Amino acid sequence: MAVTLPESVLAQYERFSLYNSPYPAHDGGCAIDLYPGTLADGRTTAAPSPVAGTVRETRTVRAPPKPYAPEHDHLILIDPAASGPLAGLTVRVLHVEPSVAAGDRVERGESLGRLVRAGFFAPWVDNHLHVGVRDPDQNPYRASGSLPLELGVSVRPLEWDGTGRVVSTGDTYAVLDSPAHPDPGAAFVGVRADDGGVLDGGLPHYDGGGLLERPAPVDTAGAPAERVVSLNGDRLGVADGRTIAWDDATVTANGEPITGLSLFCARDADFGAKLICPERSFERGELVRVRVRSSDER
């Protein structure tokens, strides 16, 4: 059973991704990362609840050991309100140090606590809430096992020719001015694949990604059919339904390899291609050409 996240849930956040993660909890688009708006320093701490409901439990959980982050995170379980769109299900939220406790009633958009960065985060990942939805009889503590998620909003595919100028940088990433959001705040957008649909995921530094906003073709038996996915003529991988298995490929910026591209859906004015590049640095204003080279071309 798939669960649809309505516009009232998603509209609270500036960005989201179903597939941009290395963790099995996101396999098949069974979890979503929700990114609130950022503060002046590029980070955010507020953690707006995706739903109204009652907090069932909060607990501290282990996180992968990383030299730059704590080895613990926090899990919040919420029973959605009976009048809400996710009534009868269990909502699980990670990456929030809770200011709420079991039995507390929360409204949609009310802060659950303070967003935190644990060992689940790669250094280039912005603060966000990790959200999954389960049937009430499912184990709420296991990392994997949440229900597949569908989007109750449309995401506009933006064509991108692979070029842009650097507008911001960090220690491990650079952001380009293209593709630019044509109407910030009004709708979610994402990078368009050559044959339609919106690309979602870490290419190729995570194992796979997603192709949103395009109905999956079916074979003669009515089952989802596989199809090749490309960007600017560069083959990225093969989609089975909406899930893409990336090829053995390398992303290059001005002809030199980088870790990859971060692909997501956004409605903020700062949307643009995000290069993951801890091994390289770029200057603001620098013109960059991005390509994807398959193993056969290397």
From TrEMBL:
Pfam families: DUF8155, DUF8155_C
Originating organism: Natrinema salaciae
Protein name, UniProt field: Peptidase family M23
Coiled coil: none
Superkingdom, taxonomy of origin: Archaea
Residue ranges constituting the DUF8155 domain according to the UniProt record: 4-150, 156-293
